[in-house]
Design brief:
By secondary structure, this protein is an alpha/beta fold. It has helices spanning 23-31, 40-49, 64-76, 97-105, 118-126, 143-153, 169-180, 204-212, 231-235, 240-252, 255-266, 270-280; strands spanning 8-11, 34-37, 56-58, 81-83, 110-113, 133-138, 159-164, 185-190, 198-203, 222-226. Bound molecules: S-adenosylmethionine. Its EC number is 2.1.1.198.
């Protein structure tokens, strides 16, 4: 550790309600030489609300690696820097990872100041298991890639946390219904800490229906908390996707052949699938 170097502070800012700033964050802003931010105009307005005026340095996702090196040099020269993002905790679906990595490699002290984070705020009000969870950030924008990603987590028993946007929420829930099954329990936490804060939970099929009834229900910023695969589901014989594949293939092929292909694809016993097909299709 270089004693003459400055310190990089990772400072969480509010996700809506401006009162959710910490005293320590405000003290740190007053003490540092520079504030590294995603959108310097947006952050300038935020900090002016708290009466703080400081030089800013722009650090975006697309220029982070290169700009981080410049910040590391400033830190080596003894400057103290606070890293903030547009909202919430930096690095959580926001820039900062490369900067922190480079600082740690250069022996520069990194001091985190905890505060708001939409994922954790949503999780703790969801009523879904909070002892073990996986944060998945944003799902891909394109449906094929999104389904592939959902398939990778379909068997996960821990709670899943996703960030989602107003434009994609209905498509994402449609894909979740298809890949995770319509009975999967999901909580939507929207506009947290703001005037229109809404936290609703239901099966994915019911939630999708409820949201599609009124466009206002899909507005704003949102987090999806998805219950992990339950023991009941794990014990259910076949996944919803395997059943769908069997149904479609059995329309084109003899059931025995369809069952053999689906069994190979999804790792089931072909006789068990064939039997299921005889009884249910
Ligand atoms: N770093 C931030 C954090 O700590 O939560 C997240 C940044 S990410 C670019 C922005 C996403 O976080 C939004 O699209 C939304 O999914 C979620 N988010 C941020 N603020 C929110 C809020 N007030 N209510 C619900 N979700 C929010």
């Amino acid at each position: 550790m270089n004693d003459l170097s400055g310190i990089l502070y990772i400072v969480a800012t509010p996700i809506g309600n401006l009162k959710d700033i910490t005293q320590r964050a405000l003290d740190t802003f007053s003490q540092v030489d520079l504030i590294a931010a995603e959108d310097t105009r947006h952050s300038g307005l935020l900090l002016s609300h708290y009466g703080i005026k400081k030089p800013f340095f722009a650090l975006h996702d697309h220029n982070e690696q290169e700009k981080a090196a410049v910040l590391v040099e400033k830190l080596k020269q003894g400057k103290h820097i606070a890293l903030i993002s547009d909202a919430g905790t930096p690095l959580i679906s926001d820039p900062g990872f490369h900067l922190v990595r480079q600082c740690r490699e250069a022996g520069i002290a990194v001091v985190p100041l905890p505060g708001a984070c939409a994922a954790i705020t949503a999780l703790c009000a969801s009523g879904i298991a909070s002892d073990r969870f996986c944060f998945e950030g944003f799902l891909p924008a394109k449906s094929k890639a999104r389904r592939d990603k959902l398939e990778k987590v379909a068997e996960e028993e821990r709670t899943l946390i996703f960030y989602e946007s107003t434009h994609r929420i209905l498509d994402t829930l449609a894909d979740m219904q298809e890949v995770l099954g319509e009975a999967r329990y999901v909580v939507l936490a929207r506009e947290l800490t703001k005037t229109w804060e809404t936290i609703v939970g239901d099966t994915v099929v019911n939630l999708r229906q409820w949201l599609s009834e009124d466009p206002n229900r899909t507005k704003g910023e949102m987090v999806l908390i998805v219950e992990g695969k339950t023991k009941q589901e794990s014990e259910a014989e076949f996944s919803p996707l395997a059943i769908k594949a069997l149904t479609l293939m059995a329309q084109e092929l003899p059931l025995k052949k369809a069952a053999a292909i689906v069994a190979e694809l999804y790792g089931y016993k072909k006789n068990a699938l064939y039997q299921f097909g005889l009884e249910n299709l």
